[in-house]
Amino acid sequence: MNELEHELHYPLGDKLPAPATTIELAPGVRWLRMPLPFALDHINLWLLRDRIDGRDGWTVVDCGVSRDEVQALWEQIFEKELQGLPILRVIVTHMHPDHIGLAYWLTERWQAPLQMTMTDYAIAQLNLTGSSMAGGDRVADHFERHGMADAGALEAVRSRGGYYQRMVPRVPPSFVRILDGDTVRIGGHDWHVIVGYGHAPEHASLHCPALNVLISGDMVLPRISTNIAVHANEPEGNPLQAYLDSLDRYRALPADTLVLPSHGRPFVGLHTRVDQQHGHHAGHLERVLQACGNGPQSAADIIPVLFRRKLDAHQLTFAVGEAIAHLHMLYYQGRLARRTGNDGVIRFAAVG
User: Fold this and answer.
1) Which residues are CB-neighbours of 61 under 8 A, at least 6 positions away?
2) Is the full-model pTM beyond 0.90?
3) Which residues of 134-159 are buried (b: 16+ CB within 10 A; e: fewer)?
């Protein structure tokens, strides 16, 4: 446990759901975990006891990636954990593969509707056309403009053109739109939709005042910092500012809210974690500004300023995008100037 984690409270301690089992966290709210093929090796998913149009069953929140072993674990969940009841609805917080990957299978398997925000549904569809945010020629060109010069690294990025499709082979052909401020009735309780920006195009968290529970998705995580990146399909974006502004909306929720994150353990300490994230990025921004004060810096130059550990190819794609996000926030604040050199590389320098 790192120093910041000591400021949070974990009601279940180190207890985790065993594979293909669930833990009840609040009445009708069950926690399960599925494996991921990354350094971040798990995702938390949620089962909410529900009743829709007179039918008893469950709402699933987030799905896991599309892999045979994940489907097999889901089948065990269906057999052992659903009390003989069906899945009535699938809610996806956002379009990243670990959240939407098996939505097509779950909705078909149970003839259940998908609910999510329109922007994330549309971007998921766009990623299936080959316009992936994770790799391919356009992403490699984007990274090269921001200073990535290693031929091997660039080739690795180009080879990841089908990365999204491998974990999200399809998405359901239709969906039910949810909007910021909507109330979704689940199991006799109102769950309020809180849309956040920066990590995904239109990320939906769900807050239930009656249960004092927040399904935070990736917007608020207890141990790691949510990835905030500038992507090739929105190269002029300012996602870090959008993310920090979105975080402040969670301050309106009770301080003792039980937070159910997509990664890590359920915790209490929402306001503390929001403050920690602001402090984390403020420190990063200050180091980036200082580096740019020593001379023009590309995003590739900034990566070691933000990340002290060795990064694999998967992590590197996140790191480049995150470096650009910090540079862009300072640029849009007027604290950095931006120039494109004769070599085609974009660099940033401190103003004044």
Assistant:
1) 45, 46, 47, 48, 91, 92, 93, 206, 215
2) yes
3) bbbebbbbbbbbbbbeeeebbebbbe
CATH number of the domain enclosing 120:
3.60.15.10
Both tokens of 211, joined, read: 């249960």
In a domain, 271, yes or no: yes
pLDDT of residue 49: 98
- The residue segments making up the domain with residue 101 are 4-131+160-286
CB-facing half-sphere around the CA of 273: CA atoms within 13 A? 31
Per run of 10 residues, the mean pLDDT along the chain (length 352 residues) is 82 97 98 94 98 98 98 98 98 98 98 98 91 80 94 87 91 98 97 98 98 98 96 96 98 98 98 98 98 97 90 82 98 98 98 87
- Residue closest to 34 by CA, chosen among 20, 16, 48, 13: 20
What pLDDT, on the 0 to 100 scale, is given for residue 219? 98
Yes or no: say if 8 and 1 are a contact pair by the CB < 8 Å rule: no
Closest CA to 314 of 117, 145, 125, 98: 98
Count of structural domains within the chain:
1
The pLDDT score that the predictor gives to residue 2 is: 66
Integer-rounded Cα radius of gyration of the chain: 21
Q: Which two tokens stand for residue 159?
A: 């080879």
The total number of residues shown for the chain amounts to: 352
